[in-house]
Amino acid sequence: MITTAQETEGAGVPRLNVGEWIETGFGWVNDNLGALFDLIRTVVSTLTSGLDDLLNTPDALLLAVAFSLLGWLVKDWKLGLLSIVMLVFVISIDQWENAMTTLALVAVAAGIALVIAIPLGIWAARSDRVSGAIRPVMDLMQTMPAFVWLVPVVTLFSIGVTSGVVATIIFALPPGVRFTELGIRGVDPEVVEAGHAFGSTPGQILLRIQLPLALKTIMAGVNQVIMLALSMAVIAGLVGAGGLGGEVMRAIGSLDIGLAFEAGLAVVVLAIYLDRVTSAIGHGGMAVGRMSKLLRRGRPRRSPEPAATKAA
Fold first, then answer.
1. Which ranges does the record mark as transmembrane (predicted)?
2. Which helix (H) or strand (E) holds 150?
3. Which CATH class is domain 36-288?
């Protein structure tokens, strides 16, 4: 039987069955690499559930105080005060457990994304070929609508928290790669040449010159990865990731305006807290000074040397 090619609305332009090709490819991957995806599902779900249990085990108010102390340490008392007020607000609207579940998902997804993104960004900064090869992949990952990533991950990992974590990793990873590459490429070439002149190896130049000088830019990328992970973690509630995303989806299903705003405000609190803390760590300064002062207070003072010893 002779089949005729389908045409699109444009006259003479044949229909490309890209969707069918992609679906066939995912079917092949799922059939042949099922054991690998089962292993990934087990590892990710174990990490996420373990961290979720850890965050939900202590008393909510005690953990809120601990988070507030962290804010004070990395910046100042104003961030500590703002943190305790916001976190107590989350407790008061009965969204603390869901917020900690979302925080666990974000922490696991952002951590895995950064483990992949930072080495990849370093590699791209050191090789123009690698940079040119991964740029279109990063563009695809970053510009593809977030909901689209939920379909393939559910195909590979089924409904559950693993699908939410993997979709979050895909969506949040590109800024980590881009900012790391940008930061290392932005290091003054003369400083790098000085390192070569003193006989430093490429590894020493990377660890002692390029990474320290690019740290602020890399931390800006870390901040963006965490923010994108948080936004995607809410969307991941559609595939059973739970947490605040699950509450938002439940509110949409029942048209519960109150629940939707309570879960949404809890997301806002998490976003503000994570943004302020990571930004403060990235800028360093006050955090380093405060911690060093605390450490110096605990050290015994050196006794002055005798005058005779100095004269000798």
1. 54-74, 79-96, 102-125, 146-173, 225-245, 257-274
2. helix 150-157
3. mainly alpha
User: Structural domain boundaries of the chain?
Assistant: 36-288
CA angle 53, 57, 60 (to 5 degrees): 120
pTM (two decimals): 0.82
Tokens of residue 221, six digits: 């990328």
Per-residue pLDDT in tens (0 to 9) along the chain, 312 residues: 444 456 566 556 777 888 888 888 878 887 888 788 888 888 998 999 999 999 988 899 999 999 999 989 988 888 889 999 999 999 999 999 999 999 999 999 999 999 999 999 999 998 889 999 999 999 988 888 888 888 888 888 888 888 889 989 998 999 999 999 999 999 888 888 888 888 888 888 888 888 888 888 999 899 999 999 998 888 888 887 888 888 888 888 888 899 999 999 999 999 999 999 988 887 764 444 455 455 555 555 555 555 444 444
Give Rg (Cα) of the chain: 25
Amino acid at 46: T
307 residue type, one letter: A
